[in-house]
Amino acid sequence: MMDCVIYMRWSSAEQSKGSSLERQREDCRRHATEAGWRVVDELVDDGISAFKGQHTTSGALGRFVQDVEDGRFPDGVVLLCEKLDRLSRQEPGRVFMWMMNLTEAGVMVATVDGGRRYSQGNFDMASIIEVVVKAQLSHEESEKKSQRLSSAWAVKRRRLNSGEKFVMTRRAPAWLQVVGNPATFIPIPERAAVVRRIFEETVAGYGKHHIARNLNLENVPTFGRADGWHASSIQKVLRNPAVIGELHPARKARGAKRTMTGDIVEDYYPAVVDADLHRRALTAIAERSRKFTGRGRKLVNLFSGLATCGSCGNKMTFRSKGRKQRADGTWVSEDYLICDGYQRGKGCTNGVHFNYAVWEEGILDPIIFEALSGDRSGSHSEVRDLEIEIATLERTWEIAKARSDSALRIAVDTGRPEAQAIWTDLVAESDVAMSALDEARGRLQLLAHAPSLEEQWARIHQLRSQLDHENETLRFDARSKVMSAVHALVNRLVFYGPSPMGVDMVIAYERSVSIYYHDLLGGTEWSMCRLNAEHYLNIEDEAAED
Q: Per UniProt, what is one GO molecular function of this protein (predicted)?
């Protein structure tokens, strides 16, 4: 009795909801019984198209071929399927060569349809013609279907790019639902609120693990069937452009990776997060990269990656000598900042060990003073509205620029006048967007200089009392938030020594701060001045070079 492996496949999710699987399984089992074959395995490729051939390499059929090559069936095996097109819908030549290789490896290919059997010894001319003809018919059918679908989606994308508003597919992000006729996207209020909360907490300095933990502690329902929030689900929300209303069309053949078309459709979805909050959240994510967060949950060094040595330009590194008991019985942590160039013997003469606790307090003092100076003329609501307008205009310009660049490549490649005309129009559109952006930025300068930093300053002031809290969770949350704010506010933080010993700092390209250690007071003192335009440009140039 020969071993038999049943193979079943269908290409669409809709087919999987019907009777395709049960029909194929029942017909194949009955045929195997009548032929006297022993079924040893049943293989299923669910929702995988045979038109591109991915199932023969990555699907269940591909694993079967690998098993054959590895010698799993030394006495031969029957590969049974409902019809020949279940095995492949590729070009006839590819199908024939694939079957020839398979049969030469000891496999008999059999179909329920027509009771056909193809093996190494019985591939006569009639069998060859039959395989080639069936493969040709199947391939042509799939190719026509593929072309129709591609054309339909291309037409939809062109309609959207021309400004027409309609729902291209009823598939929607988890915080939206499709209602009405014609169909419309409507936010689900409680889910949209969760999305906004995720972005707000990210801007506030929370990492994705902490956000997920807080949502789980509050028993906030997930958007799917998961039993709780995970860092990965928070990441997906943060990286989804649909939150600001954008659709990024993509192509995906079944069994293949999803590839972006390069098009961006604005205002396709209702935005649940404004453009400025979205931008600040992505900036906060960049600030919280591994090189800034330090090891573990302590976040001891708030200035990691920011502080540099004034003598050699190397980074200042954190060193801890543990806890030490003073003569009066109190315990202190001996933590220091020291030049990495000096520590590694790279020629730096700045060997000062800056007591971390003293200099953390000394650096935060002028930052908070500047935060409380209250010299910003524009109201918070006016500034906020203008920030959102600028963020939206920035995104509009980025999309217009990307489209004009794409059109330029097409015009160069094809040389067609139509493409050149489209490129000219898109460049004009990009220029208009840039002009609007420059105008809005000018209004922001008149209204309030760098007002978006208010939130950062207020955050440091409110959280400072929790920087050394006994509760580990509160301490970590506070230090992570302050760290994010410090890296957003401080443009330069340079340590000098041994004589004089101090720190030079620039805040928001606006204030220059000099901090020095006072031996008699046993602490730091500082002075601050406003930067002029020349200093501002020099600092920006140095930052660009770094």
A: DNA strand exchange activity
> In sequence order, what are the residues at sequence separation of 6 or more whose Cβ sits closer than 8 angstroms to the Cβ of residue 173?
240, 242, 243, 269
Q: In this structure, what is the dihedral angle of CA atoms 82, 88, 91, 93, given to the nearest 10 degrees?
A: -80
Chain length of the chain: 546
Q: What letters, b where the CB count within 10 A reaches 16 and e where it falls short, cover 461-487?
A: bebbebbeeeeeeebbbbbbbbbbbbb
The boundaries of every CATH 3.40.50.1390 domain in the chain are 2-139
* Amino acid (1-letter code) at residue 397: W
* CATH for 2-139 (3.90.650.10, 3.40.1400.10, 3.40.50.1390, 3.50.50.60): 3.40.50.1390
Does the structural domain 176-291 have CATH classification 3.90.1750.20? Answer: yes
Strands 117-118, 107-111: pairing is: antiparallel
| Dihedrals phi, psi of 8, to nearest 5 degrees | -130, 140
- 371-383 residue pLDDT tens: 555 444 445 566 6
Q: What pTM was computed for the model? A: 0.45
Beta-sheet strands, E only, within 450-510: 490-496, 502-507
Alpha carbon 169 to its chain centroid, in Å, reads 23
CATH architecture of residue range(s) 380-449: Up-down Bundle (1.20)
Predicted confidence (pLDDT) at residue 185 exceeds the cutoff of 80:
yes
